[in-house]
Design brief:
By secondary structure, the protein is mainly alpha-helical. The chain has one domain (6-120). It has helices at 6-24, 30-49, 57-72, 117-120; strands at residues 91-93, 101-104, 109-113. Strands 1-2-3 form a 3-stranded antiparallel beta sheet. Helix 1 (6-24) packs antiparallel against helix 2 (30-49), helix 1 (6-24) packs across helix 3 (57-72) and helix 2 crosses helix 3 (57-72). The longest helix has 20 residues, at 30-49. It starts with 5 loop residues before the first helix and ends in a 7-residue tail after the last helix.
């Protein structure tokens, strides 16, 4: 069996991390999963053009999906840290860098690594 290239490994990992966060937020419906696949396809081209960016793919896919969800459905993921006030979405930081995290700018805290929202929200919940 042929092993996956570093680019394909990064793309598969990014897909898995973002899907885990979508499951944690109970929004992993088929049409939303399609948004992940669209982003992975687009980022495949991007990282093939700039292989040094392989470590940035997970954060970029998370941002792509977040942007696509905002256009179609609304803010995601909602902040689990701030108990009052207007609901607001978390942001991915760094915007272009390795080790992406979901952060709440209102509270000024890292909430969870991309792929680990279930830990910040008390675990994945079933519908």
């Amino acid at each position: 069996m042929k092993s996956l290239s570093p680019i394909e490994q990064a793309l598969h990992a990014a897909r898995a991390l973002v899907l885990a966060d979508l499951v944690a937020g109970r929004v992993a419906e088929a049409d939303v999963v399609s948004l992940v696949e669209d982003s992975v396809a687009q980022r495949r081209w991007w990282v093939e053009q700039w292989p040094d960016g392989v470590g940035y793919v997970a954060g970029l896919v998370a941002q792509d999906v977040q942007d696509a969800l905002l256009e179609r459905y609304g803010r995601w993921p909602l902040c689990p840290v701030c108990p009052s006030g207007d609901p607001h979405a978390l942001d991915v930081e760094p915007e272009l860098g390795p080790d992406p995290h979901w952060v709440c700018h209102q509270a000024g805290v890292k909430v969870a690594a991309v792929g680990s929202l279930a830990q910040a929200t008390g675990g994945a919940r079933s519908s």
